[in-house]
Structures are given as structure tokens and as C-alpha cells.
């Protein structure tokens, strides 16, 4: 078999040499594309911050949800998670300040907040121990 010689930019190359050149150029192109995609993904994750890792989502409480309100003027009550509570009760170290037809008002560590039925629990719940599940009147 004869060797095939090609003239490339003033140099004489073999067919194998040109194939190697194109293979290397293809690998460089692929690596450049992968690097650019990675950089774009990192920028999207960090959204302009100087972070090098994915931003952590803010922690949300998985307890403290008002499931329902049973309202009466003389003795309103509510269901928080699976517990029936009344005005003045303490659950998870959070005091039930007020129960209305539309919302429950809570207080803990000097902070007050209200929650409607099925509303995502307020972040103030995170400051309290969810293992303290006893209801105290």
C-alpha cells in the first residue's frame, strides 16, 4: 500500500497525521462546548453571586400548618397539624394568641404572625422545637 501525502499549509503530511489533527481539533471543540455549558449552569445556579456551589433553598418548616378552624364566639378552636388547640394554648413552644374565622394568630419569642387555613407555615416556626408537641393551656 502506498502512503498518501497531503500538502497542508506548506507542510507535507500523511493521511494519518491529518486525521490525528482533525481528531484533536474535534476534541478541543467538544471540551470548549462542555466548559461553556458548565460555566453557564454555574452562573444560572449562583445568579450573579460569588458562590461556587448551588445556592441552598431557604429551609421551610414542616410543622405548624393550620389545617382547620372551628369558630364560635365563646370557644374558638383550630387544628394545627393534627392537634386541636384553643386561644391561650402553647404548641411547639408557640402560643395561640387569637383564633378568628379567617386566621390564627401565633406568638413566639416576642414575634407575632398570622396564618390562614392551609397556608404554608411561617418561618418563625423554625425557631421552636418541633419535638415539644405537648399542648399546654
Task: Describe the structure concisely.
With 137 residues, this protein is α+β, with helices and mostly antiparallel strands.
What is the general shape?
A: rod-shaped
Low-confidence stretches: none
Helical proportion?
10-25%
How far apart are the termini? 98 Å
CATH class of the largest domain: Mainly Beta
Structural class: alpha+beta
- Could you give the order of strands across the largest sheet? 6-7-8-9
- The structural domain count equals 2
What is the CA-based Rg, rounded? 33 Å
> Could you say what the CATH topology of the largest domain is called?
SH3 type barrels
CATH architecture descriptor of the largest domain: Roll
| Total number of strands | 9
Contiguous helical run count? 1
Main beta-sheet annotation: 4 strands, antiparallel
Percent of sequence in beta strands = 25-35%
Mean pLDDT: 77
Task: Describe this protein's structure.
- The chain is an alpha+beta fold and 137 residues long.
- Strand 6 and strand 7 (94-99) form a beta hairpin.
- It is built from one helix and nine strands; from the N terminus they run ββαβββββββ.
- It has two domains: 5-46; 66-127, SH3 type barrels, CATH 2.30.30.
- The protein is rod-shaped and about 95 Å long.
- The strands form three sheets. It has a four-stranded antiparallel β-sheet with strand order 6-7-8-9, with no helix packed on it.
Secondary structure blueprint with pairings:
Elements: E1 5-8, E2 11-14, H1 15-46, E3 66-70, E4 77-80, E5 83-86, E6 90-91, E7 94-99, E8 103-108, E9 111-116
